[in-house]
Amino acid sequence: MPQELMPNLYRLPVPLPDSPLKLLNSYVIKGGDRDLLIDTGFRRPECYESLTSQLAELGVDMARTDLLLTHLHADHCGLAPDLVTEGTRVFISRGDKPWLMRDWSREDWIASGERMVRFGFPRDTVEHAFHQSPAHSMAPSKDFQNYQPIDDGDEFSCGGYTLRAVCTPGHTPAHMCFWMETQKTMFTGDHVLFDISPNITTWTTVDDSLGDYLRSLKMIDAYDVQLALPGHRETGNFHARIAALLSHHEKRLAGCLEVLRENPGLTTYDVAGLMRWKIRCSSWEDFPMGQKWFAVGEAASHLLHLEACGLARGDRTDEVIRWYAQ
Ligand SMILES: [Zn+2]
C-alpha cells in the first residue's frame, strides 16, 4: 500500500520474492502535470502487479510520468521497459547506462566469469552462477534502449520538489542519490541502506570500487540529511548509519589483512571463505552459489582496496591472483 511521506510524495513497497533484500522501495511524486517515479523492482510478475496496482491507486498515469533510476541493478530498474509508454522518459546515470544496456549473453557472462576464475572461483561453477543471477533472469528487457543519461548536479522538478542528482560511485560505477535541499531529504538508493550493508563488488571498468564507495560515503555525510529514503526496507539516522558503514568496512579491511598475514598466498575465493558473513550456513562450502558469487566479489573489492592503499599485494603471475599482506 502506498505510504504518504510528505504532501504528494509516496513510498511504494514492492516485494522482492526469493531475494534476501525482501523489499524494494519505489517512490513516486505526484506533480499535477507530470509525475515522477523512482525505481521499479525486478522484472517479474509479483513486482509488476504490486507496483502497477499501487500506481493505479494513486492515479499515476505512466503516459505523463518520468522514471528516475538510482542505479543499474535489476531490482531497481528491471521493470522500466514494461512500464514505459510513449510519454515516459527514463533517466539513469551516464556511467551506469552502458552496463544497463549490456546484453548479458551467455558468452558475455562467461567472459566476465573469467575474472571470477582469476579470483579463484572454480571454473565449472561459473556457468552455474549464470543461471542463478538476477542480472540474467530479471533484468530489464533489451527491447527498450532509450535511456536518457544524467550527470552529477542535474535537477528534476516535480510537484514543488526539486531533486538534484548526486553521483555516489561505489555500489555501481555511477550510482546516483537524489537530494531535495529544501526538505533536507535524500533518496539514497543502495548507497546508504539501514539494516543491510550495501554489497560492494568489482567492475571491469573501475580500479577500486570500495575506495570509491568510502569516498562517496564521506562526501554525502556533509549533506544535512534529516530524512533518508533508501532503496530497501526502513529508514534510520543518516549520519549514524554512515559512521557505522565506514567502521564496518574498516573492520572488514582489518579482518582481510589479518587473514592474509596468517595465510600468505591465498586466492580471493579462499579469503572470502575465511571472512565472516551474515548468512545462515554452517560452512563456506554450504553457501548457495549466488551468495558465493556476491561474497567473492565483495572480498575482491576489499583486497583491491587494500592493494590501492599499499597494504596488500596481488601476485598476478599465475592464472589465479594470490594475495599477500605488505
Ligand atoms: Zn543495488
H/I helix tally: 11
State the fourth-level CATH superfamily of the largest domain: Ribonuclease Z/Hydroxyacylglutathione hydrolase-like
Major β-sheet annotation: 7 strands, mixed
Count of strand segments = 14
- The termini sit apart by 53 Å
Overall 3D geometry?
Answer: globular
Low-confidence stretches: none
Note down, in words, how this protein is organized.
The mean pLDDT is 92. The protein has a seven-stranded mixed beta sheet, with helices on one face. A five-stranded mixed beta sheet has the order 8-9-10-11-12, with no helix packed on it. The chain has a two-stranded antiparallel sheet with strand order 13-14. It folds into two domains: 3-103 and 139-236, Metallo-beta-lactamase, Chain A (4-Layer Sandwich); 106-135 and 245-325, no CATH class. α5 (106-118) crosses α6, α9 (238-262) crosses α11 and α10 (268-274) crosses α11 (289-308). It is 36% helix and 21% strand. By secondary structure, it is α/β, with parallel strands linked by helices. It contains eleven helices and 14 strands. 41% of the residues are buried. The structure holds zinc ion.
